[in-house]
């Protein structure tokens, strides 16, 4: 877009603020003129500007909206382009749809009246068998996240998450979108009704999907302990596969530590619930904890990232061992590890972190 490139070059060439503002005001006036021919109409009880295309094609709308977005990013207040953004997200062309979604995300807040006009377009993109459009829609929902949008579109996002035909990267985004909406508007979620379908995805072959879904399960489990209790079995099975069976792909090894973020999340999830009493489950998690606690701090590499990753998993394992049984041999092993940290040359922050983790358990009071 040559016009956008020139506009950005002019702004960067402005030596003082006054010249920058003058150039922006001139451009905004030009864009308003191009968007002229608007009339006021009543839509669902609100008044909104409806752009009469006025001969503008999709490319021109995309170019002008891009200039508006750039102006907004610079920190200037913009009050035009909302309806053009609404129109562009319905475009069949990806480049135009992308700019439309970007404008909706940046220019509209969660209580904007214009959002009512985009819900149907977003739902259409969620329903399409097109992963790129699915992701654009999910990004917009997660970033705007209003209550009305959550009520209208959460079921569609959930459907994408549990669909066997959804690609892994779509499932990851769907899980995190649901997490975002749940944190803002938990009252609109049928969390108990969705429990079993969501938990089942913790068995997914893609560890990226498992990380995203586990984050969602952790949030839901804190408010619905009984409904999400079966996630404990899933967490133990996955930990066994990672730590004991070494079932993970190379891309999920972070500085020689297999998927440390997932290990930490799973270990923490188990602490939301009372100590495990089932003999088989307890034996499995004890084997996992023993394998993690067998790590010797003196064997750590000098690489900071490796140490941070291995210690994060180690401290969470220590916390879970104490949570299960303060008199177990595992806790005795943990005490020995903590003693080594005390005399270590590393900063005292490591031991401080360990003491914080082992003195604070994560399962809700209602579960005690």
What's a quick, concise take on this entry?
Keywords: Membrane, Protein transport, Transport. The chain is mostly helical and 368 residues long.
What this model shows, in words?
The protein has helices spanning 2-13, 17-34, 58-73, 82-88, 94-107, 115-127, 131-144, 147-162, 168-184, 191-200, 207-223, 231-244, 260-270, 279-293, 304-324, 329-342, 349-359; strands at 39-43, 46-50, 253-254, 257-258. The protein has 368 residues and is mainly alpha-helical. It has a domain at 271-368. Strand 1 and strand 2 form a beta hairpin. The longest helix is centred in the last third of the chain and has 21 residues, at 304-324. The chain is elongated, with a radius of gyration of 26 Å.
How much of the polypeptide forms β-strand, as a percent range? under 5%
Number of DSSP strand runs: 4
- Please write the string of helix (H) and strand (E) elements: HHEEHHHHHHHHHHEEHHHHH
Helix content: 55-70%
Give the terminus-to-terminus CA distance. 61 Å
Structural class: mainly alpha
What summary fits the major beta sheet?
2 strands, antiparallel
Question: Which stretches are low in confidence, meaning pLDDT under 50 for 5 or more residues running?
Answer: 38-53
The rounded Rg comes to 26 Å
